Fold:
Amino acid sequence: GAVVSQHPSRVICKSGTSVKIECRSLDFQATTMFWYRQFPKQSLMLMATSNEGSKATYEQGVEKDKFLINHASLTLSTLTVTSAHPEDSSFYICSARDPGLAGGDHNEQFFGPGTRLTVL
Amino acid sequence: DAKTTQPPSMDCAEGRAANLPCNHSTISGNEYVYWYRQIHSQGPQYIIHGLKNNETNEMASLIITEDRKSSTLILPHATLRDTAVYYCIVRVGIYDMRFGAGTRLTVKP
Structure:
């Protein structure tokens, strides 16, 4: 199946710094990617939908100025956590769909391995 | 999206079939049932999806009731590596997949 990678897999930073997380589709082009956040012992929460060449769409309650999303190419979306604070410590996961697969909108969504962010 | 209800946790003996139920009584005619799982500290993994017919692939079988108000994911021969949180999601299409609490399946030796 299609592969989605994330980098870094783990990052520790000081409070007040910014952290960039990359999400790549390795063997397909993704016009749309999704960013999720998962706190310990909780389910995944959709943060935003990243659209290649246009602005991201954020879910209600997600600060767009804090979580900057850039989808500059068909294989790369980045999430930048600006001025990170300890409460931003979480597991961040991206996903994408391969539009080239048969089945249209009902194909599976491929998820990255996640990035664990710890803000000290 | 239709709301889904899953038991918070289940146990299964290794080698036996694991049957994970999901209720989605408000599902509409064009909504599909998707199943994903998440092994600890990893990204979710697609398992299977279906509209109204039963589906089977190399990982699992999906049984959807005739009225489509509930479904069951079957792992025919559970192994320790199947220990994970299993999510049942009902959605029209694949975009912005939203996750509920899921069922934590523990496969025991």
